Amino acid sequence: MWAIATGLVVATAGLTVMLGWFLDVGSLTRVGRDALTLKFNTALCLAFLGVGVAAGAQTRAALAACVTAGAVGTLTLVQYPTGWSLGIDEAVFRDAAGAADPGRMAVGTAVCLCLGAFALISLRLGRRSTATGAAVVILAIGWLGSLGYLFGVTTLYDVGQPSTMSAHAAAVLSILGVGLLASVPNGVLAWLLRGDDPGATVLRRILPLALVGVPLVAKLTLLGEHAGWYQTEVGLAFMVIFASSGVSVVAVHMARAINRSHAERVLINEQLRVLNSSLEARIAERTADLVTSEAWARVLAWSAPVGIYHTDAHGQCTYVNDRWCEIYDMTVDAAYGNGWTDRLHPDDREWVVAAWTRSIDATFEFDAEFRVVRPSGEVSWVHSHSARVDEAASGGGYVGTVSDITARRQAEHALRETEELFRIAFGSSPIGIALVDANGLIVRANRALCELTNRELDELHTMRLQALLHPDNVGLQERGASASDVDQRIVRPDGAVCWASIRSAQI
Q1: Distance between CA 69 and CA 312 in Å, rounded?
Q2: What does the alpha-carbon distance between residue 10 and residue 47 come to, in Å, rounded to a whole number?
Q3: Which carries the bigger pLDDT value, residue 225 or residue 5?
Q4: Which of 199, 259, 274, 411 has CA atoms 20 to 30 A from the CA of 349?
Q5: Residue 137 in contact with residue 115, Cβ under 8 Å?
Q6: Tens of pLDDT along 154-171?
Q7: How far is CA 371 from the centre of its chain?
Q8: Vertex 432: Cα angle to 488 and 436 (nearest 5)
């Protein structure tokens, strides 16, 4: 906001002087006792720089304006030592006839224009310290020129014709310097206005007194002397009294601020001491809990009937317990990193490693059954499961278990063989076989039973066993009997009757 405001003030001042040239209004182009004229080139360049400050030189138009102002200032400076006339001094308007070097701006003004363009370009490039230095120089030149006009000290703004800086230029350059300082993100001006450290606090109290209060009182004192109200000695006494009083007031304010700061620091230190004591006690308590928890964890891991392992966030093994070493028949050191993959069965290694890598990359649980080959050549089946653990609570990574499932796999294999044997025997047996539920319903029958009863499988699966028998037959043993071996008559769909020896057993 400061940069926008000061940029608009500078641009408005430049446009106002340009308007005075267009309308030939001398009060807009001349100011001061010597009726010095603010050159049209100077007003145009100041307007360009004001636009650049307000826009932050972020747009191409603002950047072009800044470059133009810097180019005009540079060409003007080139003309002074070389004596050349490059035709830019009176490109639009001409000074009064007979003026020396008509239309040429002062050396100090040209230097400030170059520095202003340089500062804005530096800000665009992110070089804040360079921009700050250029802005400080512009502010110093403008401020000295303003003081020269305020006190009538020509050496502060006049280094010889035609290098006399006009009052317009001195005031506007001072504002331009402030605007450039405000344009620097988190720069000197921002620190001065918003900083709460002692340095910023001291400067906020001293600078208004030094830059505004003292010059204003000095000017009023000079006016009183020139009016004859008192002599120089009295005016000097007024100045000393004001300066001493101002410094004393600032010193008192600073002393009170320092005392408050010291008291706050003492209070904060005491609070920190109490907090540190509390934290130390909590840390000691937490450390004891962690030691106890770690001891429990080690005991549980050591006595667990399953293998336990821990990996880092990248899946590299960092811990295994004794049971894990027994299952894989590996040492702890050999298991670290990716050493455990050396025990994988050649037919399982590729897909197990790929599945493990996918689970690590996608941070989901790993669950798989695979084979491991021990150094003796023995092949075992294992089941491995792992899950990600919280990094803040447990250090991150993955914790998993490994179980030897060789016996279960062998039992499953034997069961599958038994089931296959039963299926073959059931289907190919020349004897009719039926599986009957507790309600007497046939749930499974073989082809031999279909041929015996002269019925289809689908039909048998909807019938009760009792329905196949002749109504005069004595019923089969009731549920609960261990076995039954009787001769019964079976009635076929065509009414034909055949005798069958029926044996039943409860499963």
Answers
A1: 61
A2: 6
A3: 5
A4: 411
A5: yes
A6: 777 765 555 677 887 888
A7: 44
A8: 80
Place of tokens 């039909």: 459
Burial of 6 per CB tally in 10 Å (0-12, 13-18, 19+): buried
Of 488, 486, 498, 502, the C-alpha closest to 453 is 498
State the average pLDDT over residues 420-430.
88
Predicted model pTM:
0.50
Residue 316 phi, psi (nearest 5):
-85, 125
Q: Answer for the pair 30, 72: CB distance below 8 angstroms, yes or no.
A: no
Q: Which two tokens stand for residue 252?
A: 């008192």
DSSP class per residue in 112-172: HHHHHHHHHHHHHTT-HHHHHHHHHHHHHHHHHHHHHHHHT-GGGTBSSTT-BPPHHHHHH
Q: 117: which 2 tokens?
A: 């363009």
- In this structure, which amino acid lies at residue 308? I
Phi/psi of residue 485, each to 5°?
-140, 100
Phi, psi of 201 (to 5 degrees): -65, -45
**How many other CB atoms sit within 10 Å of the CB of residue 7?**
25
DSSP-derived 3-state class of residue 281: helix
